[in-house]
Amino acid sequence: MDNNIVVFFLKINNKNYFSDFREYIFLLNSIDLKVIDIIFININKLDPHALIGDIYISKIKKIIIDYVNISFIFLNYNLTPIQKVNLEKYFGFTFVDYSLLILKIFHSRAITYEGKLQVKLAELKYVYANLIGKWDHLERQRGGMGFTSGPGEKQIEIDRRIVYDKIRNTENMINKMKISRIQNRINRVKNEVPIISLVGYTNAGKSSLFNFLTGGNAFVDNKLFSTLDPLVRMVNIKYLGNIIFVDTVGFLKSLPSNIFYAFKITLEEISFSSLLLHIIDLSDRDYKQKVSCVLNILKDICPDNIPIINVYNKIDLLEVDCEVDSIFPNVKISVKRKDDISALFGLIRTKLMPDTIFKQIVLTNTDIKFRTRLYEFGCVDKEVIDSDGNYVLNLIIDRNKYYYIFRDYVKYV
């Protein structure tokens, strides 16, 4: 069927859904689906039996009656089991709702064994919730000799029990892997290795920045959820020593609860971070709403005492610079510009080394005594002489000694 699909885009109470619409289309394109038609449906009230009501069903059936080679119809809403069954009966096509679309995307992105298990768990829970009305033989009874089910047990009950057992087995396998992660966390705490987690809305550029910071090769693509499994790498950074960087799955607004909780175990890594880098795509016109979405999710999965740095990414895509309103320390960057990354490292040092001051000063020949004093206190990390013969010093100073060292040279404070 060449992945041809029709989109039913639901607009409730005539609310402006333009930003949501663009995201849904992006989601569909991320798994190479071909949208051949989009039908906008404006309704004021959801129908509990078929979501859109009989009047719209009759109108839309006339529009799509001649469509052939359609893989499925996507509807930007989460359907109840009975709504899904009824819509598929009325239209004669398979319906994929928002939850199922996200599962399809996650299924295509999972690489590691643990990632595949988490996707499997979410899929099983979705199937379990949607078993009602799945078959024509639901009322058929099974029982008697030769069957494992009890007398008179309905087929639906058998199927639900089979899926439930698979859910339990999958959860047990994930929990065993969780024990291994807990042991790794204990080792990190013992070794006092700081952990920096990269978080953000999907497609904000986390993996590109992760690769730059760690010298790695995490998969990067201009698609939602281009990486699903968390990546962990330890690198040695000047002044900071060994640092563990964690690249996490991208966030998404209105993520269905069954999917969110399937991946909550993985996201728990974030709660053990020393610092969060919140990566924000500044070129995205809807970035403010996506920032709010990320912060709301973070409230649910990690303590509020973990410091955050807002990293406004992709500024190379902006035609003009723009001001940002942030309650957190922030920096604007492009991974294509090394100076921007240096500024980011400066903020990271400030957060992880709050008792240390990093400072650059320029001294002339008249300040030789002060230069000697800085060397005596071991503050000079690097020194170069510029074209005018001045001394350019990069300093690392204990905050408790800062004003004592500079007491007679306040012009450099």
Task: Give an account of the 3D structure.
The chain has 413 residues and is an alpha/beta fold. It is built from 13 helices and 15 strands. The strands form 4 sheets. The chain has a 6-stranded mixed β-sheet with strand order 8-9-7-10-11-12, sandwiched between helices. Helix 5 packs antiparallel against helix 6. It is elongated. The termini are far apart.
Compact description:
The protein is an alpha/beta fold and about 425 residues long. It has 13 helices and 15 strands.
List the helices and strands and how they pair.
Elements: E1 4-12, H1 18-29, E2 34-43, H2 53-64, E3 72-75, H3 81-91, E4 95-96, H4 98-109, H5 113-129, E5 141-142, E6 153-154, H6 155-191, E7 195-200, H7 206-214, E8 231-237, E9 241-247, H8 257-262, H9 264-267, E10 275-281, H10 287-301, E11 308-313, E12 330-332, H11 338-352, E13 356-363, H12 368-376, E14 380-385, E15 391-398, H13 399-405
Parallel strand pairs: 1-2, 1-3, 3-4, 7-9, 7-10, 10-11, 11-12
Antiparallel strand pairs: 5-6, 8-9, 13-15, 14-15
Helix pairs in contact: 4-5, 5-6
Describe the largest sheet.
6 strands, mixed
Order of helices and strands: EHEHEHEHHEEHEHEEHHEHEEHEHEEH
**Overall shape:** elongated
> How many helices does DSSP assign?
13
Mean pLDDT: 84
- What amount of the residues lies in strands? 15-25%
In total, the number of strands is 15
Identify the strand order in the major beta sheet: 8-9-7-10-11-12
Low-pLDDT runs: 135-149
